[in-house]
Structure formats: structure tokens, C-alpha cells
Design goal:
Length: 327
């Protein structure tokens, strides 16, 4: 059996460690487990849960995703594979053994650093879980990012959110004359497309107010979802404060970054039909009106149709939903 070396002595288990080592793990509820593991509560959507297993299914899925991402990293993944069980609970003894077995002579510094790092790992896991719980969803597209077509990829984006999702609008910034965008472009600001959808939720939120205070008489609830397509691999940093707790983390965009708004009792925007006009065709009309072919355009679409703009060249054209030039 592996031993834990501390200050020149060997101990059989975490419980056998002296108080000097254990002080890094407060046990305010006196249950014999460090609060970061057995005594801590997980706050999810306003409710406290004693462990991962008590979380609702969707929350457990998010925590599992957090663990999956962390286990994919070289160093942390090795630690988690040893010291985190299938229920997502940290085993303090295994964590300490894992991190101290290579420490020469069991130096005090090594065990203290290991214990502090263990606490940091617990916070890190929770930070990634918070990232996922907060709605940081990102996924890859099947298209070439250097030739992204907002119209050709529309259905793929929509179906990933919900096949029944309804488009509100999109804004494609820096579309080339062939109707595509280079998401890996090196200039700033970089090309991106922002889609806005809404979808009807299968049931009302748990904290839904009564009719007259926010709920609609028909009992329907809706969620607005923004899908931002931008440079794959780009990192974003997020800092949020709520309930006296500050959460800070970074995440990497895979290609499409989703943001879900809080549920509302009315349709959050005017529905627009699926876009059918080729952006290349809109560009052809614009070139006939004097648009420089080597420029990039900002093209927006909603229930009223398309607006085609090249700001530096004073080009501003409007098209109907059936692709006809109207202004």
C-alpha cells in the first residue's frame, strides 16, 4: 500500500495525517470529510445540493462534461483519473498520494504544496462546471472556416440548437464577394456571424411567476438563443459576480458559441423566415451598383429582408426576403 510521507514520517491514510497538514481542509460540519468534498454544497439554479449524485440530471451531465474536458489535459487528467471517482467526488487520500509519491524524502514543502494544489483542483473543477452551467456552449461546424457561408450553414446551426428553433435575425460581418467569410482572417475586427433564434420550452421554469406577473395566459415559455460564429480556437475570458461569489474562467471557441437568455413568457422577437437568398447574388447586384469587388460587406437579415452595407464605400442596399432590390 502506498504511504504518505510528511515531515520525515510515513502515514497510511489521509486521516492519519497531523492537524498541521489537515488544516488546509476545513471540516465545519464535523463529518470527518474536507468541506471541499463531503461537506460542501453545490448551488445550482438557486438550490443547494450535497453532492453530484443529488444534482438534477442536466446538472450532472454538465459536471460530467467538465470532468471530461479536464481529464483530457495531460497533468490534471492524470490526477483526476486517479483521485476522482465515478460519482465526481474527490478522494483526498488518493489525491495526496498521487501528488506526493515522487517528492524526495517526503519534504514538508511537498505535502503542503500538494494539499494547497488539491484545494485548487477542487476549485478548478467547480470553475469548469460553472462555465458549463453558465451556458458556455460551443461546437464545431462541418464547413471550412476559411470559406464560411452563413446561408449554407444556417440549417446546421439551427438544428444544433433545436430543429424547431425559429430565426429572428442574423448579422454577417465582412462577407466577401463570393458570399463567404474567412473566420481565420488576420485583420481586426475579424469576420463573424451572429444568429438570433428563439425556441419554445417544453415546460415552464420552476420559478415561473403567475399570470399577471410575467407568465402568459397560454402557459407558453420561450428561450432566446444567440449563436455567434467566429474564429475557431479563439479564447475568451469570463468574470461574473453573483451571490457574493466571483467566478472567473476562460474557454476556447470551437467555431460556434451559444448564449441562452432567461426564459420569458412571450415571443422574444419577430420571427423571420429561413434565409433563401445567396449572399453571392446580393454581392453581384451590389457590384452592379458600384461596390468594389475586393471589399467586404456587412449583411443583416430579419423579417423585413436584407440590408447590404460597405461602410467605407458608402454602399447601402436593401433587399426583400425574396431577394429583390428595394432601395
Amino acid at each position: 500500500m502506498k504511504k504518505i510521507s510528511f515531515n520525515g514520517k510515513e502515514y497510511n491514510s489521509f486521516d492519519d495525517l497531523p492537524e498541521e497538514a489537515k488544516k488546509y481542509f476545513p471540516d465545519q460540519n464535523k463529518n470527518g470529510m474536507p468541506d471541499m468534498n463531503g461537506g460542501a454544497t453545490i448551488n445550482y439554479q438557486g438550490k443547494n445540493y450535497g453532492s453530484r449524485n443529488e444534482l438534477p440530471p442536466e446538472a450532472r451531465a454538465k459536471m460530467d462534461e467538465a470532468m471530461r474536458r479536464l481529464k483530457g489535459t495531460p497533468f490534471i487528467g492524470k490526477i483526476l483519473g486517479t483521485a476522482v471517482d465515478s460519482s465526481g467526488q474527490i478522494n483526498p487520500e488518493q489525491m495526496v498520494q498521487m501528488m506526493t509519491q515522487k517528492a524526495a524524502g517526503g519534504a514538508k514543502m511537498a505535502i503542503v504544496v500538494s494539499l494547497v494544489f488539491m484545494a485548487g483542483i477542487g476549485a478548478f473543477i467547480w470553475g469548469v462546471f460553472q462555465m458549463i452551467s453558465a451556458g458556455e456552449e460551443t461546437f464545431e461546424l462541418s464547413t471550412d472556416p476559411q470559406n464560411f457561408d452563413p446561408i449554407a450553414s444556417y440549417e446546421e446551426v439551427k438544428n444544433t440548437i433545436d430543429p424547431e428553433a425559429q430565426l429572428i435575425s442574423f448579422r454577417a460581418s465582412y462577407v466577401r464577394s463570393d458570399g463567404t467569410m474567412d473566420l481565420n482572417a488576420t485583420y481586426t475586427p475579424k469576420p463573424s456571424t451572429n444568429y438570433k433564434f428563439f425556441r419554445e420550452l417544453p415546460e415552464a421554469p420552476e420559478d415561473a411567476p403567475p399570470v399577471g406577473a410575467g407568465s402568459s395566459p397560454d402557459g407558453k415559455w420561450y428561450e432566446r438563443v444567440t449563436a455567434e460564429v467566429y474564429t475557431p480556437g479563439q479564447w475568451r475570458h469570463v468574470t461574473s459576480v453573483g451571490g457574493g461569489v466571483s467566478t472567473e474562467y476562460s474557454y476556447q471557441n470551437k467555431g460556434v458559441d451559444l448564449e441562452r437568455d432567461d426564459a420569458v413568457g412571450s415571443i422574444p422577437g419577430e420571427p423571420a423566415s429561413a434565409p433563401e437568398c445567396s449572399l453571392k447574388d446580393l454581392w453581384s447586384t451590389a457590384i452592379g451598383k458600384g461596390a468594389p469587388e475586393n471589399a467586404v460587406a456587412v449583411i443583416t437579415y430579419d423579417a423585413d429582408g436584407y440590408v447590404f452595407s460597405i461602410y467605407d464605400a458608402q454602399i447601402n442596399l436593401e433587399f426583400s426576403t425574396d431577394c429583390k432590390l428595394v432601395a
